[in-house]
Automatic annotation (TrEMBL):
Entry's family note: Belongs to the DNA photolyase family.
InterPro entries: Crypto/Photolyase_FAD-like_sf, Crypto/Photolyase_N_sf, Cryptochr/Photolyase_FAD-bd, Cryptochrome/DNA_photolyase_1, DNA_photolyase_1_CS_C, DNA_photolyase_N, Rossmann-like_a/b/a_fold
Protein name: Deoxyribodipyrimidine photo-lyase
Cofactor entry: (6R)-5,10-methylene-5,6,7,8-tetrahydrofolate; FAD
Lineage: Bacteria, Pseudomonadati, Bacteroidota, Flavobacteriia, Flavobacteriales
Organism of origin: Winogradskyella haliclonae
Domain Photolyase/cryptochrome alpha/beta, residue spans: 6-136
Keywords: Chromophore, FAD, Flavoprotein
Length: 436
């Protein structure tokens, strides 16, 4: 009988980089050669369109990691396609595995998946070790004195900063240990077509965290025509950058606004962790009593950027064409869907989940519940953005609108599908009757 090679496994997930990767660092510091793997999880992929830009991005990133490991370390990265539990059943028959290392994943599906994997590995006398990597603080790291989670951002942010002063903040030098990966440069590889996908025409843009971009962040971030955001979203989502290195950048430039955006991300992550039901139920339960109109034709007009409100339409057309929408505009289009059209926030959340390159369940759910008024935000439900006055505030020269809605002054451009004043009154009445 052939003796199986004794290895430890590092499982890449939302951490697609070789540098400052906590779980990878600990794996490479173990006493066995490390087999790096990635699993294209069919439980997730089967729900996605076949030209999904995020899948293309993940695939390109993995090929880059493979190339680095092959060229510099005579190693590689093994790629698999299927349900993770089935892949691990295959792996235990291929290798003598002592420990599987990976990083924490906090979403409800991931937690269920990891429990199943942990139990299977344990039944085969294999350890399963996971680490905090994609956040500075997680779970119960930042909570109130009574141990309960914060549900309002400002006090959470304040405590986050106080706690940050007390920790031993370090960068994990995982890239210096890559010689400890397995000596096999011919590990299983997969093409996009092997996993049932095609190359997307949309590109996930590189991020920009130059000193100037961070310094100008407060002054420019609210104006969609300037396109001066960092574009960090997808890179933090898939872990092609380290949150610790991004926090270092914010500290180096002493930019509180940029740092607060990183803290918002962790706030929503801990909300989803403590309240996993919020992925499809309102945080404030009484908001599930709202009688949504849920008109499918109106929803399609919103999706297609044909509402007759130029700033709303610009955002939706930008999203459909590029997979990106400026955050200021996201708030407006979300508010318009929920408040003007009285369409359930879950419809909008699902559409963004399909289209956004930087889709992250915790932030997406948190922000959609914010605009619907059903989330953790303390502001009352009668905050309703005026889609016309928002233009004067954030696109006064109409540069953003002209780029994405060049037909806005043409006779062919649709009339506003609903009158703002009428819609506002209808919304207030509907919410009031549901909540009182």
């Amino acid at each position: 009988m052939k003796t199986l090679e004794k290895v430890n496994v590092f499982w890449f997930r939302r951490d697609l980089r070789l540098d400052d990767n906590v779980g990878l660092y600990h794996a490479l510091n173990s006493h066995l050669p490390v087999l790096p793997i990635f699993i294209f999880d069919t439980e997730i992929l089967n729900k996605l369109p076949k030209k999904d830009a995020r899948v293309s991005f993940i695939h390109h990133t993995l090929q880059s990691l493979r190339n680095t490991l092959q060229q510099d370390y005579q190693s590689s990265l093994a790629m698999y396609n299927g349900k993770p539990i089935d892949v691990y059943k295959q792996l235990v028959n291929t290798y003598d595995i002592e420990t599987v290392f990976t990083n924490h994943d906090y979403e409800p599906y991931a937690r269920t998946r990891d429990t199943e994997i942990s139990e299977f590995l344990s039944s085969n006398a294999i350890a399963f070790k996971t680490y905090k990597d994609q956040v500075i603080f997680e779970k119960d790291d930042v909570v109130k004195k009574d141990g309960n989670p914060y549900v309002v951002y400002t006090p959470y942010s304040r405590m986050w900063k106080e706690t940050f002063k007390t920790i031993d903040f370090k960068i994990y030098d995982s890239e210096s240990l890559l010689r400890h990966t397995i000596s096999d440069s011919d590990l299983p590889n997969l093409s996009l077509s092997d996993i049932g996908f095609e190359e997307s025409s949309q590109e996930i843009k590189p991020y920009n965290v130059s000193p100037k971009r961070i310094q100008d962040y407060e002054a420019t971030r609210n104006f969609p025509a300037m396109d001066n955001t960092s574009r960090l979203g997808p890179h933090l989502r898939f872990g092609t950058v380290s949150i610790r290195k991004m926090m270092q950048k914010a500290m180096a430039e002493e930019n509180d606004t940029f740092m607060k955006e990183l803290i918002w991300r962790e706030f929503f992550m801990q909300i989803l962790w403590h309240f996993p039901h919020t992925k499809n139920q309102s945080f404030k339960a009484k908001y599930d009593r709202i009688q949504w109109r849920n008109n499918a034709e109106e929803f399609k007009k919103w999706c297609d950027g044909q509402t007759g409100y130029p700033l709303v339409d610009a955002g939706m057309r930008q999203l459909n064409e590029t997979g990106f929408m400026h955050n200021r505009v996201r708030m407006l289009v979300g508010s318009f869907l929920c408040k003007h059209l009285l369409i359930d926030w879950r419809w909008g959340e699902a559409y963004f989940a399909e289209k956004l390159h930087d889709y992250d369940m915790s932030s997406n759910v948190g922000n959609w519940q914010w605009v619907a008024g059903s989330g953790v935000d303390a502001a009352p439900y009668f905050r309703i953005f005026n889609p016309t006055s928002q233009i004067l505030k954030f696109d006064k020269q109409l540069a953003y609108i002209k780029k994405w809605v060049p037909d806005f002054q043409e006779l062919t451009y649709p009339q506003p599908m609903v009158d703002h004043k009428t819609a506002r009154e209808r919304c207030l009445e509907t919410y009031k009757s549901a909540l009182n």
